[in-house]
Amino acid sequence: MGAHPTLALAGVSKSFGAVRALRDVSIELYAGEAHALAGENGAGKSTLVKTLAGVHRPDQGVILLDGEPVVLTGPADAQQAGVAVIYQEPTLFPDLSVAENIFMGRQPRRSLGRIDRAAMRAQTRELFGRLGVDLDPGRPTRGLSIADQQLVEIAKALSRDARVLIMDEPTAALSGAETARLFSVVEALREHGCAILFISHRLDEIFALCQRVTTLRDGQWIASEPVAGLTHDDLVRRMVGRDLGALYPKQDAAVGDVALKVERLTREGVFTDVSFEVRRGEIVALAGLVGAGRSEVARAIFGIDRWDAGTVTVAGRELPPGSPTAAMGAGLALVPEDRRQQGLVMEMSIERNIGLTGLRSLRRGATISRRAERDRAADWAARLRLKFARLGDGVGVLSGGNQQKVVLAKWLATEPSVLVVDEPTRGIDVGTKAEVHRLLSELAGQGIAVLMISSDLPEVLGMADRVLVMREGRLTAEIPRAEATEESVMHAATRRAA
Amino acid sequence: MTRVLRWDVLVGALLVAVFAAGSLAVPGFATTGNLSFALGDLGEIALIALAMTLLVVAAEVDLSVASVLGLSSALVGALWDAGLAIETIIPLVVLVGAVCGLVNGLLVTRLGLPSLAVTIGTLALYRGLAYVVLGDKAVAQFPPAYTALAVGDVPGTPVPYPVALFALLAVVTGVVLHATGFGRALYAIGAQEQAAFFAGIRVKRIKLLLFVLSGTVAAFAGVVFTLRYGSARADNGLGVELAVIAAVLLGGVDFDGGKGTLGGVIAGVLLIGLLRNLLMLGDVSTEIQSIVTGLLLIVSVLTPRLVSLVRPALKGTP
Ligand SMILES: Nc1ncnc2c1ncn2[C@@H]1O[C@H](COP(=O)(O)OP(=O)(O)OP(=O)(O)O)[C@@H](O)[C@H]1O
Ligand SMILES: [Mg+2]
């Protein structure tokens, strides 16, 4: 290990039109060191990652590889230099298999240049074994959950034997068990001399994995320092620029009538015999490992997928299967897990995305009132502290966390009586997370029933009145708030079937 | 993107330029009589283009429109031959068009087949049915009151009736596409169908409706076509779907869905109409006319792609 950092940025600035995403930022990644990058939504973290990856060219400043200035003309250059990147949003080819995605462009060959599929699958299985992933290497990636897509991206990056591994929120959709396995693999790479850059809004993960942390705020470099000796609050102060209370715990609300009743709901091969109730004023969490069937239950309740047996009742009225429109009519809202495919129309503006769930209520006569549409968007943008330039801008240019806020806004604006949220704070920074928690608590206080799917255990424990745990498509436990602990939830989520 | 650089505005400007050039260079072009004729000649294409715009914005397409037009024409002929009153024939034929559209729509929405493939199939099917109905013969001698409606002008103006109808429907379509919830839903479906479905938009029902609409309009255009030429034939309107799609794409509607304006499409339709008329006045053969249509189609698909490739390169950021 030489004195030079393996990869570094020196005095880098990058603007998108009027938005200055990075201003004179420096960072040094050393071999054998895991370096965290912290900052609020829109602070410039992903922009920094994309600069290191050769996706963005810096307006000013240089990239240094082993101390030598280099110009990366594209992602291929960075790969050539031994930099592997996991981007914040998965970028898989939906029609190619899992294994083909992982080995894209460098498939193992047999004689005459033929692709060695058997070897490819075997290597994929070996990688998955290390990560504890249970996916068929031969299946197409279309239809994989966000968490599984993220795991495939991780396997893809790990398979590259990189000198530098950059991970932009790899754990955002993962639960504790998958995260722990990822960390042990990354730890092993680090010990072999790999330089790591890691981004996460779950600060505990930064303390668990990293030795150094660099903080950005509004595109500006704030600090680079050892993690040892820093407290959670120190880090938050660097990111936010002020002190922040603890994560907002749920306030007690008067629990009312049953708002959502799910009885013996079954979708063959996906989930079986799921029954539970959510009352007005309650927040019920649905916990479990990735792939336990939580999102699938939420999708069925909202009518995205049909169910084979069972009933879903909202405020005493049974819902027809397979109709999101009917579910919305009954007062249901679903904040889905995949914001790019399911939550947002990326080519549309912020205000139109928020308006999309209110095409009826925004009507004045036969046509849509643009003013009402803008007011609705402005109102919710302010309430969720959305960071944006203009409401007419496309949602595509927002940072990941701010896109998530637009999805939340779009559904909260429908004033639902039952709110189903699937990973509501995925990719959201600490400050806003507290904000979202306060909001959910407030909504419950107003008598809304909330069903929350979350892989973030502290969030589950802090927010839920009751925790339902799913494993392998079945409900395995219902734990009241008083008895919910990390151990009791994890136990119910992982205990092997007898 | 700045307003001047918008594709539909560019097409509008091109329209004005072609008109100016035509007026200067081609004698007999800028006369009221010729322009009225050129507009009338465009009637069916323009009508069908309205429904096609809605489909393409929603990332679907209907290639069977010209065959529905032909089938409709053949039916008008056969039923007239059989002695039915024209007042009965028109609603019947339009209904058949709706059914043709329904079949397309059901194949696309129920079986999940791509509309390009489905409507290439029904393009052949409906044209075949047209020949079954009328064979090779032509039926003429329709009541003059009706043929006059198809070729005549709105009293006191040089505007043919079908064009007046188009203008009316264009306003309605424009409002629907750009100002109503239904229009918003079409853009959302075209740009990101899954997100539209998750937002509670009835994606399949809306698509089905669009195909029915397209079939209905195409059949009605078949009636207009038949009366305008005073001749019902199974091969009427052969190849019209290409002119329609060329006009829609030229108007800046993205074939991948989710983009485009009706104003652009109207400019596209008029531009195609002017070019066809100029070529005709210049005694250019129909083969060349077809080549020009084809080139326009390719240019209108290619140019926006080239622009989006070249623009970042000019700005110096990838
Ligand atoms: N391609 C782009 N065009 C315009 N603006 C952009 C683009 N990419 C990023 N931005 C803007 O740059 C700023 C920084 O974005 P970036 O994605 O780097 O944030 P981030 O720190 O990764 O946030 P998050 O935690 O939400 O992922 C934001 O204001 C964002 O809107
Ligand atoms: Mg980011």
TrEMBL record, chain A:
Highest taxon listed in the record's lineage: Bacteria
Any one GO molecular function term: ATP hydrolysis activity
Pfam families the UniProt entry points to: ABC_tran
Keyword Hydrolase carried by entry: no
Keyword Cell cycle carried by entry: no
Localization per Swiss-Prot or TrEMBL: Cell membrane
Gene3D superfamilies per UniProt: P-loop containing nucleotide triphosphate hydrolases
Domain ABC transporter: 7-243, 253-497
Keywords for this protein: ATP-binding, Cell membrane, Membrane, Nucleotide-binding, Repeat, Sugar transport, Translocase, Transport
Main location: membrane
Membrane topology: Peripheral membrane protein
Gene Ontology cellular component annotations, sorted alphabetically: plasma membrane
Signal peptide: none
Entry protein name: Sugar ABC transporter ATP-binding protein
Organism: Nonomuraea rhodomycinica
UniProtKB/TrEMBL annotation, chain B:
InterPro entries: ABC_transp_permease
Entry's Gene Ontology molecular function annotations: transmembrane transporter activity
Membrane topology: Multi-pass membrane protein
Any one annotated GO CC term: plasma membrane
Coiled-coil region list: none
TM helices/strands, residue ranges: 35-58, 65-83, 89-109, 116-134, 163-187, 208-230, 262-282, 288-307
Compartment(s): Cell membrane
Keywords: Cell inner membrane, Cell membrane, Membrane, Transmembrane, Transmembrane helix, Transport
Protein name in the entry: Autoinducer 2 import system permease protein LsrD
Organism: Nonomuraea rhodomycinica
